[in-house]
Amino acid sequence: MKKYLLVISLFGFLFGQDKYKFFLESDENLKLVGENYDIIKAELDKMLIDYNSKINLDNYWKEKYTEKVYLGSTTDDVAVANAMLSIRNPTQTDYDLARAYATKDNYDYVQKEKNRIIEPTELKFGADIFNKEKGRDYTAKEIQEAIIKTENVIDLYSESMAAEVEERLVKMRKIHSILSSKGYSQKKYLGTIISTIKAEWKDVVSYYGGYAELSKIGISKDNKSKFDLDITLEKIELTGTSKCLAHVKINGKEDALKFHNIPKSTYKYKGSYNIDYDKDYLALYDDGLIWINLKFDEKKYLHPFEENIFLNESLLPSVTDYRNAIELMLDDLLPDNDGGLNLAKVNEQSPEMGEEDACSEYYELLDTRFRGKVRKYRKAKKEELNKRKMNIGMLYEYGNYNFSFEEAEDELEPLYSMMETPEKGFPILSLIRSCGFDPSEKCN
Fold it and tell me: For residue 34, what pLDDT is reported?
């Protein structure tokens, strides 16, 4: 029993994660607490209900701001008179100057509301995801690239800074999981060229009245592209609790707009949105994520699309009190060394996934993380297996067991494998565990 409790006590050492997070990550993990499971779950449910009751996003679409309003001016006539008396033979210029100095403009600051605007941002590095001043309109592919960049440099940080970066990686992997599950893996729209209106050469010839006219103005096929127009989704304007507008800009020269018979360069199209956020137990402990789901149907200058943009977590309630209560509860109710975790649950196998579903999961992982390269997948699998062996070795050494490492590996692996999640850097072993087999051996 003690060796399993030791595993939990070493979470911070191996994963930068404490035991509380482990139990909150899934119902499967929470059931490891044993006989106190029902009590703990009931308390967590109450906390979650209270947490959700504090979230009110009905007026998020309205953005409050302060406007400086001019109220007029006032002149201190007494000050003007005193100035005139102090001057011998004052002139009109003296009077005008004195009056100007004695006059002040009056303003008031008025609270107003306007529709909230969501504008594009650029992802420069992994940490930039957590810039509180920016919206987050990244694709799963961009997030994955940021994760890889961050993982490659984490060893360069100090120990304290590396722990903070690892926390960021956990959130980045969570964002990636959300985006991938919604299919937003390859394409983003906000702030990008969503389509291009190209000119056909025959239409250019016809527009100018034939080849003879083209020769007069010096137009050839080489500069046909000057008649192309790029359509950009500039920003999203929220106009109600579920309604929004896409601001579309058509970029190109005035001649190109005339050529395509487009009367103006900006358009607004109606769409819909909803706001979603984490509603699991972990959100009570480690700050959840909140995001907006956008949807637009096809319009004249806008293709149908859906997009997911992450919002500022300050919209969600503080979790400090919930975190303190959870730590207190688990400290009181987790089994001690003489109690016991539910080891039957540890060794319980997840139901195996069907081959078709397994292949679908495998292809998505292959595409989003390994750019479709099976060779990279197999290399990463070896690295994950080596990481598993190394970590189990550390557990063995730390625990000072009276049996061989091979025996310890067999006994510790079932519990250790539960910690091998994509968020902790084990996407392949996690997939293999959920499938019951390595899909790369069948799906290729």
Answer: 82
Contact present, 247 and 209 (Cβ < 8 Å): no
The string of pLDDT tens digits covering residues 346-389 is 444 445 567 888 888 888 888 878 878 888 888 888 888 888 77
Q: Cα(29)–Cα(41) distance, rounded to whole angstroms? A: 12
**Among 316, 350, 382, where does a domain finish?**
316
CA 70 to chain centre: 41
Gyration radius of the chain over CA positions: 32
Spatial separation of the C-alpha atoms in residues 34 and 333, rounded to whole Å: 10
Q: Helix (H, G, I), strand (E, B), or coil: what is residue 155?
A: helix
> Do 370 and 346 sit in the same domain of this protein?
yes
Domain boundary among 316, 344, 362: 316
Mark whether 13 and 143 lie in a shared domain.
no
Task: Name the more confident of 209 and 2.
Answer: 209
Type and span of the H or E element at 349: none
Q: Residue 85 and residue 82: Cα distance in Å, rounded?
A: 5
